[in-house]
Amino acid sequence: MTRSNLFDLNARQDTLRIHNLRRTVWKGGIKGCAYGIITGTALTWGVPKIFFPPNPLGKFVHGPPQNKMLVVLICGAVGSTLMATHAGNKEVIFMGDVFQKGKKEQSLTQYQDRRLEAQRKTRSSER
User: Fold this and answer.
1) Mean pLDDT to the nearest integer, 52-81
2) What whole-number distance in Å separates Cα of residue 35 and Cα of residue 75?
3) Is residue 4 part of a domain?
4) What b/e readout covers 93-105, taking b as 16+ CB neighbours within 10 angstroms?
5) How confident is the model at residue 39 (pLDDT cuts 50, 70, 90)?
6) For residue 3, is it within any domain?
7) Residue 89's domain spans which residues?
8) How many domains does one find in the chain?
């Protein structure tokens, strides 16, 4: 294989890895939304029927239907966010080499040069 073919192959593999990461995040978000909606539904309809004693959420959950729908939607949004974040953090660990490709070396600014030089001088004077 020539050099350009190897580069194209690596670029395709990296692109595929990024697409897999996106797919994993979306799947995690959809799963989390489903789990959250199920949990919110259980909180609004199942739990109050089982536990009759008053609780801090009692007035809110036993209130009008809008409150019940709001609880379901909030649980779905929170579940989606948490699961997507978790899935993304699990997958991105293995993608460090993809993010390092094409990285340019940064030259130091004048301020950074002076600061490093001053640090070197203080370290040498301490010895």
Assistant:
1) 75
2) 8
3) no
4) eeeeebeeeeeee
5) very high
6) no
7) 9-126
8) 1
